[in-house]
Amino acid sequence: MRRWLLFSVVLLTLGFMTRCDDSGGKSSDTTTGDTQPDDVVEETTTTCASNADCANAPRGAACIVATGTCVECYDDSTCLSGLHCDVPRFTCFECVRDTHCTLPETCNTATHTCAVLPCTSDASCSAPTPVCDTVTGLCLGCVDNSDCTSPATCASTTHTCVTPLCTADSDCPSACDTTSGACVECTADQHCILPATCDTATFTCFTASACTSATDCAVERFTRTCDAAGGTCVECAATADCAAHEFAKVCDVAACVECVTNVDCASSDFGAVCDSTSRCVECLQDTDCAGNANGTLCDLAHKTCGECLVDTNCTTGTCQADGRCGECALDIDCTSATAPACDGMGTCVANSTCVGDDATENGDDGPAGARVLTPASGDVNSVNQDICGNAAEDDWFAYTAAAGENVTFTLAWSDNSADLDLAVITADGVELLGQSWFNKPEIVTLTHLPAGTFYVIITKFSPRTNTVTPYTLSLTRTQGVACTSVADCAAEFATQRFRGSCNTVNGACEFIEGAGALPLGARCDTMSDCASRICTYGPVFTDGFSFNWELRHTANADTRAFCVAARCTASTDCSADDACLLGFCMPECTSDADCPISDASASFTNAWPRMVCDTLTGECADG
Known about the structure:
mainly beta, Jelly Rolls, 5-stranded mixed β-sheet
């Protein structure tokens, strides 16, 4: 069965959802109702029982035990260092979303590479980034103060017009960064208490530990040995000091890294070539791919070997995003109802059929044979179907909405031993609009929809057996319910992904197109909307020193989510007892129990895994 999974990384202030129970049961951290959807997961089939069975598999060395499939990856931890797993394709890429790129680059979702798209004049740009910086070729909110309306000025770091929170140190508890208008701990050494000095990169006070021996550095989190010549604590003075690290086992200029030369990569699982960032990778040129089972061409963007870079490299089919020649990457790519599903090898196929399944099998296992739902306005329309627990099987339905209408989908079944799930996606298969997986019946309510066709997908999560489960899918449609403000878009959120822009012309709630330029406090519905790359649903540090609940409950009470600043990029940015997790300083962990659920979790695991505590650094990381 092909499983579509929706989950959000609800940033730290809300906690994390969990899915567990070996019988297919579900549980959720219900601290808040804002369980917004973010991603889609797809399963494929082959034969393996553990990673060891995939050692020589052409598709990869990671095993999805639940489906017996060898794939390249199923989360970021199974990719080479610095790459990210696109779970629907089970393939590692340089980026899957904009947050994987360093500004001003964004993720090109066609090639899964970080790149900057150039502009030549303001005419090439549009709101919310209407100004072209002809030097960098970037569309920005502003280039200089003349692009802003007084008293707003152009922030040099985010290139957005902002009204300063401060203009002088007297406006802040400690110091004012007049460039960004933000209150910070320090901008100069005089703001710190001796012997601390100001780190002007992070605007924090920092005290370097003095030492005469490694004993003096025992309490340090990142500097555990003594550089006797300089008298300061450092991460390493020799390679032996890096032994506790899982991957970075070579000492280079007082820091532990993966490699300095190719020799250091000889036993690495990530590749035998050392790149310029001291990471072991598969390749930097085609000759590095000689004899590689995945192919002999080096994808320089990902530093991985594959059989194709462009379609012309393929004798049949097209070049897929994972560097493999194939017919399809997702079910959405398959256009024939006789072969509606994309298998793990990139081929559109017909799935197996259960005895007693409904007459629409196998065509409705993908969008090509989806059954069309056409209810009358305001009426309840129901269809009765059956679904099996076979791997890669879903039941697809197509529904066409008019702009501004509301629709509620209800999935009901009588078998208490079965677990069915319900999801709604856009016609291109890219955006997930809503999902329900914690209830019986499953109910998804979507409000103020944009005009267009959407797919409703029914999945049998358990039991995964060749048996039929009858179900009823009902929908109620109400037309002519136009949004008039963002508050209308934010009102329904239990199973609906937030679409944060009300189009008052057609009455539809649409996704915000922030293009990575929205300032702090701005309304957002995806991470890529924000210049800070963090869009959150909870109360956060807005003034740098305390929880500012007013922002959440007054100015942005109808936005459901807003852009916030990352409080850290590394644990060294945090106080002595904190570690950096997803851009925020959190208490150091002492065991795995202190860590949250991994945001790289995938639906085919029986229980969502927790992040693992590195007791040397106090940081939680994907295991």
